[in-house]
Amino acid sequence: MKSNMTSNANKLADLTFSLLGSCQEKENRLAGNYSLTHVEFRCLRLFGENEPLNNKTIAKKMNLSESRLTRIIDGLVKKDYIIRNVDYSDRRNMKLALSERGKELVRQLNKSYLDIHKEILSDIDESQHESLIDAMSNMLTALEKWTSRT
What we know:
Elements: H1 2-33, H2 38-45, E1 53-54, H3 55-62, H4 66-78, E2 82-86, E3 94-98, H5 100-122, H6 129-149
Antiparallel strand pairs: 1-3, 2-3
């Protein structure tokens, strides 16, 4: 039993490492198609169409320092994808929202992202789709549980 657990853990470690690299490559390619950096792409994907976000929330979700996020946001504001509103009761706190141009870009990104995943699923037998999604959901839940303990 213990050697099976070790063997499975080793396989899972290798698979998740490779999967992370492939996912990053997928996102880099998609971001490049829209003249975005990988982090700009990830930042924009956090926004709902009419949902402003707080800079501290974005920094936490992206695992970035607030100063690093500020530089990313500066670039997205300059490209006219994001509108920055300062909270005058706490000037360090910013509300960020998509501009009209940003909303259109995010719609295009989401469509392209969905199309990529349809293409990926087309290379997997349809009878395995549901079990794959269930297994990945279970993996994500277990990973989130693990990260919340550390």
